[in-house]
């Protein structure tokens, strides 16, 4: 059994980190870029909605290729399509607001293909003994990137006049994606699986299956994530009118995440997952409350630091427990692609539900108060996650 990360794990971490870095450099400010072109929360919500639809459908359809053919080709294709998205953004510029759906779909296809291939390869290069360690390192690298990427982007956008800063960071992202494609050639080709079963995810929802608990938990996780991913950085910009402040916000919160993910990877134990996830879910729910009092850079910093402190307690036990189900026995492992598709479609359904709730309520009552109460309500979804899968966390 593995107890540390071998060379393939390290290479996969590096490819993942480059993909995340490219997204952090440009994706962090994408909602701000859209907002400056057209101040419309609903439009930005629809962009996120189109992304999530594309991600979910891509997972389901591309699952056949990942299982029956070369996973590495798909991994590289996901990186390349993500690069093409930013190439299109460079081409259309602020006219992007007129192409929300097609651009969102391109972005979602790239992300969906990459994360499907990544998650399958991640499952194959890790096992139950080093999965928490790998996830901890993913969090650490994500935090390091979260510190450096948005800070650099915020500084460049603020320093360069007009759209020059945005165009420059979009170009840098293209280059980083290219480096990620090159590095992926050092990853070993994985063995092909058997026939892809399109309806296997549905069959896993039968009575008595542990997936009857894992799927609702994944949906609840997505409900919060779908809205918070595009909304938080935008609120920081609206509160400060400064991309530099957005970068500073990401630097501070990611620095805290770096420390907490390092600690989580070092000290989280399988036997403690039940309480760890409960504490994490409760605390990331409570940290939204200061925003109900006042939306300011200070209260957003409190929210960001609180989330960074407790998110590892919530997310690492959840991710590891779900992937442990995939490797529960040799028969389940044969269906790892279908089960990863089930996990991702579940999270996509949650993200779509959260975004749809946001668009529906905000369209009827377009006020900041509506946004804040939605954040408080949707921000409590992690408690539902824990409740749904609490029995799976007991070992």
TrEMBL record:
Topology of this chain in the membrane: Multi-pass membrane protein
Compartments in which it is found: Cell membrane
GO cellular component term of the entry, any: plasma membrane
Principal location listed in the UniProt entry: membrane
Annotated Pfam families: MFS_1
Membrane-spanning residues: 12-35, 41-61, 73-93, 99-122, 134-153, 165-187, 221-240, 246-264, 276-293, 299-327, 348-365, 371-389
GO MF term list: transmembrane transporter activity
Keyword vocabulary terms for this entry: Membrane, Transmembrane, Transmembrane helix
Protein name stated in the entry: MFS transporter
Source species of the chain: Paenibacillus lentus
């Amino acid at each position: 059994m593995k107890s540390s990360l071998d060379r393939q794990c390290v290479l996969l971490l590096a490819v993942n980190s480059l993909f995340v870095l490219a997204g952090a450099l440009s994706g962090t400010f994408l909602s701000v870029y859209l907002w400056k072109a057209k101040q419309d929360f609903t439009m930005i919500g629809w962009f996120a909605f189109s992304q999530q639809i594309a991600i979910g459908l891509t997972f389901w359809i591309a699952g056949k290729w990942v299982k029956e053919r070369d996973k590495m080709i798909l991994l590289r294709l996901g990186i390349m399509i993500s690069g093409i998205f930013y190439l299109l953004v460079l081409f259309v510029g602020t006219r992007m607001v007129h192409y929300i759906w097609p651009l969102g779909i391109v972005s979602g296809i790239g992300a969906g293909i990459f994360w499907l291939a990544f998650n399958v390869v991640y499952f194959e290069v890790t096992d139950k003994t080093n999965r928490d360690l790998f996830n901890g390192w993913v969090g650490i690298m994500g935090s390091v990137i979260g510190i450096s990427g948005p800070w650099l982007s915020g500084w460049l956008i603020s320093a360069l006049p007009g759209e020059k800063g945005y165009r420059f960071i979009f170009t840098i992202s293209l280059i980083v994606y290219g480096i990620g494609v090159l590095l992926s050639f050092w990853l070993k080709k994985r063995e092909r699986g058997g026939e892809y079963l399109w309806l296997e995810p549905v069959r896993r929802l039968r009575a008595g299956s542990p997936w009857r608990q894992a799927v609702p938990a994944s949906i609840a996780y997505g409900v919060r994530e779908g809205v918070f991913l595009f909304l938080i950085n935008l609120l920081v910009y609206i509160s400060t009118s400064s991309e530099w402040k957005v970068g500073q916000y990401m630097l501070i919160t990611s620095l805290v995440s770096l420390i907490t993910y390092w600690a989580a990877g070092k000290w989280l134990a399988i036997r403690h997952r039940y309480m760890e996830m409960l504490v994490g879910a409760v605390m990331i729910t409570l940290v939204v409350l200061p925003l109900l009092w006042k939306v300011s850079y200070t209260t957003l910093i409190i929210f960001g630091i609180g989330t960074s402190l407790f998110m590892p307690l919530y997310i690492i036990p959840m991710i590891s427990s779900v992937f442990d189900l995939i490797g529960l026995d040799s028969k389940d492992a044969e269906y790892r692609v279908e089960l990863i598709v089930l996990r991702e479609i579940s999270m996509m359904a949650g993200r779509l539900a959260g975004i749809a709730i946001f668009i529906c309520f905000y369209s009827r009552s377009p006020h900041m108060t509506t946004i804040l109460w939605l954040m408080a309500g949707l921000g409590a979804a992690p408690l539902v996650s824990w409740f749904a899968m609490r029995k799976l966390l007991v070992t």
